[in-house]
Design a protein that fits this description.
Order of helices and strands of chain A: EEEHEEEEHEHEHEHEHEHHEHEHE
CATH architecture of the largest domain in chain A: Alpha-Beta Complex
Oligomer: homodimer
Distance between the termini of chain A: 12 Å
C-alpha cells in the first residue's frame, strides 16, 4: 500500500450529518523526521463529540474546516519510528483521525499493553468513555450501597460502564435506552435491574415504580426532555452528573431553558464532567477496570464496521442515535 | 381591643395575586389552655414563598385553602402565658400568619434578644432570609478571596446579605436588580462593586466587562432567563446556588427546560438550597451576623407598611416585583 486514504469534510453538515458531507481522498503516505513516528490505524473511534468539533462548538478541539481530515481517537500500530520512546510494532492510542496513516511526535500518544484486553476497548470502556464514566460516577456521583443510579444512553460505552461501576459499588443501576433490543442487553448483559425504553414507555411512571423514594444519582448523556423529567424525580440530596447532550449536538442553537425549580426541592447537586480533567486517574482506572474485565465484573458491546470508507455512514448512524454500543471502525 | 383581625384567602389567585383575592375578618381573641401562649403580632414578614404555599406547591407547608388565614412568620409579643418556657412580655419569632393574635404551644417559637438588633431584622437579614444567604453562600458557594459573586434580586433581604457576606469573605459582589434606585442602593449602601439593571442593560455584556474570566459563584433568586444567561458566563469550577424562582411563583405550570449544556464546559456545581436544612447553624449565624451588624459590616433595607389591613396590597406589590428590600408589615 503506497497511499494514505483519508476522509475529509466536504461541506458543513446542517442538523444530522449525511454521508454527502464527507469525501474520501488518497494522498501519499507521509515521511517522518527526527522524533516522529508513523502509525497505521487499527481501530478508529467514532463519538458524538466529533459532531461538536465539526460545528466548532467543542470545548478544546479546533473546528474541522472543509477540506480537513475528520478528527478522532485511534488504536494504531507504529510502522516506522525515529522516536526513542517508540519502536516498530508498538501498539498505541493516539488521535490520528479518519485516515489510514498518521504522523506524530509522540505527544499524547500512549502505549497499549495488548495482553490487558482487546485493543478496541482502549477506545471504549477502557478508554475515554470508560474514564468519563469512572471519574464522573465515582468523583461527582459518589455512589453508595443501595443508591438508585439512573443513566441515559445506557447501552453506550459511557452508559454501560456507569451502570456496571454503580453495581460494583453496591448501587442499583437503571438504564434508559431507545429500543427493546438495547434495553434487553442493558438488563441481561450489563446486569442493570431494569431499563426504560424512552420511545415506548413513560420514564416518570416507570421511575415511580423502580425508585419510589427518588433517584439518588442521574448520569446524563442526553440532556433535553429526559433530563427535565429527571429533575422532578430526585431523592433528597441527589446528584446529577451532566456528561453529554446528545439531544443538542445536531441543533444549530440550544433549546430554551432552564427550569431548575425542582432541584431546590431535592437539594440536588449538579456537576459538569469533562474527561480531560481526570487524566491523572487514567492509569489507576485502566488497572482497576481491566481487572474488572478479566474477573467478568464488566462487559461491553461494540458496533463495529470494517474499512475506513464506511466511517461517514457509521458516524451518521451514530448521530441519528441508531448505533448500538461503542462505535468502532476497524481498518486492519 | 377585644377582637382578632385576620386576613384570609377569599379566592385562589390566578397569576399575580390581587387584593380582591384576600378578605379581612374579625374574630374573638382566642383563649389559651395549659402549655400554650397567646402572642400579639409586632411585625409580619411577607415573602415570595407564601405565593407557593397558597398554590399548594410549597415544599413543606400545606396549601392555604379559601377561608384559611394566610401563613407567615412574625415577631410577636407574649401577652398571656400558660407555658413554663415563656413569660408575658417576651418577644418571640413565631409563625402566627396574617393576624393580630395567635396561639402556640411553643413549638418552633424562638425567644428574641431585643438588645441584639432591631426586632424586625429577625424576619430579614437575621432571620430566615439571612440564614438562607449565609448557609447557601458559605456552605454551597464556598466563597474565596477574589471570587466574583453574582446575586439576583440583590436589594432583597437574601440578595443583600449574599453580597455583603461575600465581601466579608474577600470576594467581589455584583448585583442584579430591576431599577436604577435598587442598583444604586446595592452599590452605595451594600458596597457591591456594581449592580446590573436587568430591565435596561444586557446582563451578558456587563458581565463580560465586570468578570471577564467568568462568574465564580451565582446565587440565584429568580430563575428564568437570568439563570439561563448565567449558565453561559461561568468561570471554571463555578458554583451556582439555586435558592428562589421568582420568575415562576406566579405561573400555573413551570416553563420548558432545561439546557444545561454550558454547565459541562464550566464544570459548574449546582446546588439547591433550602433553609430548613440549616437550622443547626441558626445560633451561630445570629451571633456572627449581629456582630457584623454592630460593627457596621452589614446593612439592610426594609419596605415597611403599617397595619395588618395593608398586608394584601403589600404582598401583591411584592409578587409584582415592585418591593424594595425586606417586606415587613408592622402591626403595633
Amino acid at each position: 500500500m503506497s497511499t494514505n486514504k483519508q476522509i475529509i469534510l466536504k461541506k458543513n453538515p446542517v442538523g444530522i450529518p449525511e454521508i454527502t458531507d464527507f469525501d474520501t481522498i488518497e494522498t501519499d503516505i507521509p515521511e517522518i523526521t527526527n522524533n516522529q513516528i508513523l502509525t497505521k490505524t487499527v481501530h478508529l473511534s467514532l463519538d458524538p463529540y466529533i459532531r461538536g468539533v465539526i460545528t466548532g462548538r467543542h470545548i478544546y478541539s479546533e473546528k474541522v474546516n472543509v477540506g480537513d481530515t475528520i478528527v478522532g481517537r485511534t488504536v494504531s500500530e507504529v510502522v516506522k519510528s525515529n522516536h526513542t520512546n517508540f519502536s516498530e510494532g508498538d501498539i498505541v492510542v493516539c488521535s490520528n483521525g479518519w485516515q489510514e496513516f498518521g504522523v506524530s511526535d509522540g505527544e499524547g500518544v500512549r502505549k497499549l499493553d495488548p495482553s490487558l484486553a482487546p485493543l478496541s476497548t482502549a477506545l471504549g470502556i477502557l478508554g475515554m468513555p470508560g474514564l468519563t464514566a469512572y471519574a464522573g460516577l465515582t468523583v461527582y456521583g459518589e455512589p453508595k450501597d443501595g443508591d438508585h443510579v439512573v443513566v441515559s444512553a445506557a447501552s453506550g460505552p459511557v452508559g454501560c460502564m456507569v451502570g456496571q461501576i454503580a453495581q460494583i459499588y453496591g448501587a442499583k443501576a437503571i438504564g434508559i435506552a431507545g429500543s427493546e433490543e438495547k434495553c434487553s442487553v442493558v438488563k441481561n448483559k450489563f446486569g442493570f435491574i431494569d431499563c426504560i425504553n424512552y420511545k415506548t414507555e413513560k420514564i416518570e411512571e416507570r421511575l415511580k415504580d423502580l425508585c419510589p423514594d427518588g433517584v439518588d444519582i442521574y448520569f446524563d448523556n442526553v440532556g433535553g426532555e429526559t433530563l427535565d423529567t429527571m429533575t422532578r424525580n430526585l431523592a433528597m440530596h441527589a446528584r446529577i452528573v451532566l456528561c453529554g447532550f446528545m439531544t443538542q449536538y445536531n441543533l444549530d442553537s440550544p433549546p430554551p431553558g432552564p427550569n431548575l425549580g425542582p432541584i431546590v426541592g431535592s437539594r440536588a447537586t449538579i456537576r459538569g464532567v469533562v474527561v480531560y480533567d481526570h487524566y491523572d486517574k487514567q492509569d489507576d482506572f485502566i488497572s482497576i477496570a481491566s481487572d474488572w474485565l478479566k474477573a467478568g465484573k464488566i462487559d461491553y458491546i461494540e458496533d463495529e464496521v470494517f474499512g475506513l470508507e464506511n466511517a461517514p455512514a457509521q458516524f451518521c448512524k451514530l448521530m441519528r442515535g441508531e448505533n448500538f454500543g461503542k462505535t468502532i471502525v476497524t481498518i486492519q
